[in-house]
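ok so I'm stuck.
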Amino acid sequence: MAASRDLEYLRPYCATDRQEAKLDAVIAAGGNYREAGRAMGGIGHASISRMMKTLRKRAAMAGEGEHFQAHESLPNPLTLKGTTTLYKDGVQQLQWVKSTVDADQREALVRAACEAMAEDVPRLAPLPAPEAVQSALVNVYTMTDCHIGMMAWREEGGADWDLKIAERTLTGCFEDMVRRSPDAETAIIAQLGDWLHYDSLQAVTPTSGHLLDADGRFGKMVQVAIRVLRRLIDVALLKHRKVVLLPAEGNHDIASSVWMRCMFAALYENEPRVEVIQSETPYYAYQHGEVMLGWHHGHLKKPDQLPLLMAAQFAKMWGATVKRYAHLGDKHHLHEKEHSGMLVTQHPTLAARDAYASRHGWHALRSARSITYHARVGEVSRIVTSPDMLEAG
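replied:
not stuck anymore, here's the structure
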């Protein structure tokens, strides 16, 4: 057992007066748990032992311990998770240091790396703008939960999905929406997250580590994701004078949304007709005259929570508008409800069902929408497209 003089460092980690009294008893007993328990009125030594383990764990999580010094050299973005120490005859023999990734530091490192890489991205030359457009209109092309890189089998979910099918479907449906939508001056490509199916070299969800059905390597998935998004922007530039790109964060591509924002902002830096919405939070807004447009993937807030959040986070825009609309994805199916002051639309996906969705019995009609808004009166038209329409010609 540790000598009493080594235990004072645990005092700041006592959460109650009772824990501090037990610690005082252990120190007075020279580290002997049985004697400390008797001094406390007959408390069992097991109770004292559990409390001491709790205090040591709290201290270790803060990077403090009698013998532990390794936390001083842990590199970013690692942070201390805990230690396991082997003693023999009261002398430390070995120590295992357990670390984990600090989410905030990891995100900062990813963002810094993306910004550095974007410095060398070749800038695209500007394209000629169309002449005949309606300045009061904006077309919002919503593409959500496209899951590029996912593998789906028609025997399980009713339709196949892989990298080639994803590229063909997403570009074809987008071109169909653009062709049938009004000649608005502005286009907003609302890519509402989960553009990529997974977020690292391993085909797992970034937060829970669930195994995913994937097609190909991470590098191939990234190439297709970039190529499709570039195609969407170029198609929109041929019809609209201004194109606004929203690469939103999804729960499947938390880190990738960072490099996508940085890379596309650099890629179109010399194209004055392209704007990339940059936001460090997963909530986004755009004002078009007296109309407010808001977006969120849907992984952190439910549809009925969005109006109040948008009003609080974008208070000036909320007060300056009279028609307000919010859009989100995440659930892969269509749902729409009008709340006080805002119409909230949950958009469906163009992607097929994977094995996970199939086994849970989740069904949704695959489609995407272009919604046109007038700067004063709000929504004026909708265009719907689907993979079935592409196949039907």
